[in-house]
């Protein structure tokens, strides 16, 4: 049964970008007559105003989630079987307003603006998430005009100082992953934390979260982004364009102290350098070296010496998504103004191909998040954040 609480302006069909199969951006097809979803028991129907792009959108589209062999083309399937089916609407970090509620949801939710906890949780546990999946992969996401989601995962955020596109830039896919990386490694106040891939969504979230938690973040990024990263909270910015003498450069900015924990989004051939930055003088440490990994932009295979891992007692944590508790903590920090959006630009939903190309263009050198806004919402929620083309 569905509660009869629906806006009279909610149309029977909507515009959406459909992912029609694994491959290039040609697999993303814009349709204007996709059926508008109906909220089930415990769900709300959200009119989407902004959805942030994430690297997982591209990786899922291209089938870049290998599980064993390098070069596999496969879907993200942690639960043992694939949940991505086609056509699929991608987009995990959704912001919008409730326009209808399903049975069991109070009608007072209609009209509330909120941010989606993007996880498709396998159970009701609040402190663990062993089989992560997400909206935009195992269920339709926010690259559309409407989405139906659980009411308890659509968190009201009515801060007037945050535009919808800015709120989407603070979405859970980046911030919850970042918080889970820090929590997994047990990062504490006063500890020195190296953040790799610091200019992306998870990286900028990590820098802010370190400061909220009292830790000291050191960023690894391109030097043209150094001023913005320092303004965001980075203690120092190490140049990633050259990794020669990396440990010496770390020692120079930390007053010869080892890094306590590395939050790694790069992987590849850099991994052993990050471990060295934590282990060059174990007598100066007060805790075990810790490496949290939530990405591999620099390569899916790393070569490390296992003797270094076990003799130096390096603790390694693989991180994917996060928990209900962490989502709720993030929402509390957002509502309290402790976190700030890092929004680079907005694109229209119908221009998602252009946004995808821009997203992977390394020459773009942008900082923060790209947000997708439905065409019908563009003037209200997207136009002022449009990309300023050179």
Key descriptive features of the protein:
390 residues, alpha/beta, Quinone Oxidoreductase, Chain A, domain 1, Rossmann fold, 2 domains, eight-stranded mixed β-sheet, six-stranded parallel β-sheet, 17 strands, 24% helix, 22% strand
Protein model, in words:
The chain is α/β, with parallel strands linked by helices. It has two domains: 5-170 and 341-385, Quinone Oxidoreductase, Chain A, domain 1, CATH 3.90.180.10; 174-318, NAD(P)-binding Rossmann-like Domain (Rossmann fold), CATH 3.40.50. It is 24% helix and 22% strand. It contains eleven helices and 17 strands. The protein has helices at residues 55-62, 164-168, 172-184, 201-213, 226-232, 246-253, 271-279, 306-311, 324-335, 352-360, 378-381; strands at 5-6, 13-19, 28-35, 43-52, 88-89, 93-101, 113-116, 146-150, 154-156, 192-195, 216-221, 236-239, 261-264, 290-293, 315-318, 343-348, 369-373. The strands form three sheets. Strands 1, 4, 6, 7, 8, 9, 16 and 17 form an eight-stranded mixed sheet that branches. A six-stranded parallel sheet has the order 12-11-10-13-14-15, with helices on both faces. Helix 3 (172-184) crosses helix 4 and helix 6 (246-253) crosses helix 7. The longest helix is centred in the middle third of the chain and has 13 residues, at 172-184. It is globular. The protein starts with a strand and ends in a 9-residue tail after the last helix. 47% of the residues are buried. Mean pLDDT is 93; it is low at 1-6.
